[in-house]
Automatic annotation (TrEMBL):
Short name of one Pfam family: Abhydrolase_1
Record-level Gene Ontology MF annotations: hydrolase activity
Segments forming a coiled coil: none
Signal sequence range: 1-27
Family affiliation: Belongs to the peptidase S33 family.
PANTHER family in alphabetical order: 2-SUCCINYL-6-HYDROXY-2,4-CYCLOHEXADIENE-1-CARBOXYLATE SYNTHASE (PTHR43248), TRIPEPTIDYL AMINOPEPTIDASE (PTHR43248:SF29)
Alphabetized UniProt keyword annotations: Hydrolase, Signal
AB hydrolase-1 domain mapped to chain residues: 97-485
Protein name stated in the entry: Hydrolase
Record InterPro entries: AB_hydrolase_1, AB_hydrolase_fold, Serine_prot/Carboxylest_S33
UniProt lineage: Bacteria, Bacillati, Actinomycetota, Actinomycetes, Mycobacteriales
Length: 509
């Protein structure tokens, strides 16, 4: 009914780690020799990663080494990973660095900062901060790249409907999950998979800080980036000057509860989309709110048996129709493409816009090549929290999701359900859910959107309370908002980052 690999992952925090005293905060973290970890990068141009750097001519790129297994950090023979780092220097009176993580997990911060560097060049942020992005281990341009599937294998995976909850169908779905997990083991090895999570990434982030020669960092995290930011603040709170967390994940929730709440958020977003669609003539979901879900299911359910026509020879599979729909619900800007794709299904013409939405979510380009974002997403998600391994828990989840998110539900409740991919994962979790801790008063601002489908509003309220942070409430129905054009939000964020001016209590934009 819903597939492993969708959406923003459930949150956890990194393990609490004792941090030995170091001579100064710019030295390597955890007392490791600066000769190996935390040494200054050798900066060069960014064209090996960013094709067009014309709008960020001062950008510099480098790699920073971290140990694959932090337990082996003192061993000179231990394996290293190499983190891709981009820096766009401040153009004016420099305050420090602003590290950015765009979320996922699995999204490339290098690509994100390349775009932000151009967009924010003439703003207070661009003038006062070096914009810095590092791709966490296994992600983006960092090496080794976490990649479990070839392009052809990923295409084949997307053709599987994964909706047959008969005994044989459940066995088939779990077999596909187990095959994917084994591909990851075969291509990445157990050691790398066991150390891919946020617990390691937070420590890696402090290596990057040390390599940059900064005593403290400023940080802007979106979506999963709020989880990474909270994990960093827990371990290295004294090294945080200012932190903005937008589209927050509640670190106290277990993955089951977080999944159900997220699906409820997407149901609300679907209803808002359908209501807007119904205001226009010819909406494929009709005009009766009581029938929106039924009309949608009538359009997509037949794809389980036969993909719909698209000009792309792959056609539109059932899984891609659902993924494309979910992708469109992240932002109203995508609603017109969802409507176009559903109209194609209704009329029996080209439903290609839904396929394009699915390709965008899965990060497949026009040549048929995928980034490794989804493989990294799954591997990180599976070690970032403990997942129940018994079938009964997943049957209960199936029943709950059908109740709170009927638009995503295929068929009726059968009393059977496959276990999640993470219940079959070959390495144990390295983190577990618990409330976040505060790095200190006035250091954190949380931004939460009332109609955010992927990271529901209450998660931001909870995170702000846990971190003793200021909360900015944005009235909207999109996923994240900072530096996305809202003057109220952006002014408050800029004032906080530049002047450490805490937003007024109860700020609502």
């Amino acid at each position: 009914m819903w597939r492993a690999g969708w959406l923003v992952c459930v949150v956890v925090l990194a393990m609490t780690l004792a941090v030995p005293t170091v001579p100064n905060a710019s030295a390597a973290p955890d007392g490791q020799s600066v000769a190996r970890y935390g040494q200054p990068p050798v900066w060069g141009d960014c064209q090996q990663w960013i094709t067009d750097t014309s709008k960020i001519p001062t950008a510099q790129c480098a790699t920073v080494a971290v140990p694959v297994d932090w337990n082996d950090a003192a061993d000179p023979q231990a394996a290293d990973a190499h983190l891709a780092v981009i820096r766009v220097p401040a153009t004016g009176d420099r305050i420090g660095v602003l590290m950015v993580n765009p979320g996922g997990p699995g999204a490339s911060a290098v690509k994100t900062v390349a775009g932000m560097g151009a967009a924010l060049a003439d703003t207070e942020i661009g003038r006062h901060f070096d914009l810095v992005g590092f791709d966490p281990r296994g992600v983006g341009f960092s090496t080794p790249e976490l990649r479990c599937r070839t392009d052809a294998e990923f295409d084949a995976y997307r053709r599987e409907p994964m909706v047959d909850y008969s005994p044989a169908g459940v066995a088939r779905i779990e077999q596909l999950y187990a095959q994917f997990a084994q591909m990851c083991v075969d291509r990445m090895g157990l050691e790398f998979l066991a150390n891919i999570g946020t617990a390691s990434a937070a420590r890696d982030m402090d290596v990057v800080r040390a390599a940059l020669g900064e005593n403290q960092i400023n940080y802007l995290g979106f979506s999963y980036g709020t989880q990474l930011g909270a994990a960093y603040a827990e371990q290295f709170g004294d090294r945080v000057r200012a932190m903005v967390l937008d589209g927050a994940i509640d670190p106290a929730l277990d993955p089951i509860a977080a999944r159900v709440r997220q699906m409820a958020g997407f149901q609300r977003a679907f209803e808002e989309y359908a209501t807007d669609c119904a205001s226009s003539p010819g909406c494929p979901l009709g005009t009766d709110p009581a029938q929106f879900v039924a009309r949608y299911r009538q359009l997509v359910d037949p794809l389980v048996q036969q993909p719909a026509y698209t000009s792309d020879p792959r056609g539109l599979s059932y899984a891609d129709a659902i993924t494309g729909t979910v992708n469109a619900l992240y932002s109203q800007r995508y609603w017109k493409y969802l409507t176009s794709g559903l109209l194609g299904l209704q009329r029996g013409t080209d439903a290609g816009d839904l396929l394009l939405l699915a390709d965008d979510y899965q990060r497949r380009d026009e040549s048929g090549h995928y980034t490794n974002q989804q493989d990294a997403f799954l591997a990180i998600r599976c070690v970032d929290a403990p997942y129940p391994t018994e079938t009964a828990s997943w049957v209960a989840v199936d029943a709950q999701v059908r109740q709170v998110a009927p638009f995503i539900a295929y068929g009726g409740f059968t009393g059977l359900a496959p276990r999640d991919l993470c219940a079959l994962w070959p390495v144990p979790p390295t983190s577990s859910p618990r409330p976040a801790s505060s790095p200190g008063p006035g250091k954190v601002v949380v931004v939460s959107t009332t109609g955010d489908p992927a990271t529901p509003y209450q998660a931001g309220v909870n995170l702000a309370r846990q971190m003793q942070a200021s909360l900015i409430t944005f009235d909207g129905s999109q996923h994240t908002v900072v530096f996305n054009g809202d003057a109220c939000v952006d002014t408050a964020v800029v004032n906080f980052l530049v002047d450490l001016t805490v937003p007024p209590d109860g700020l609502r934009c």
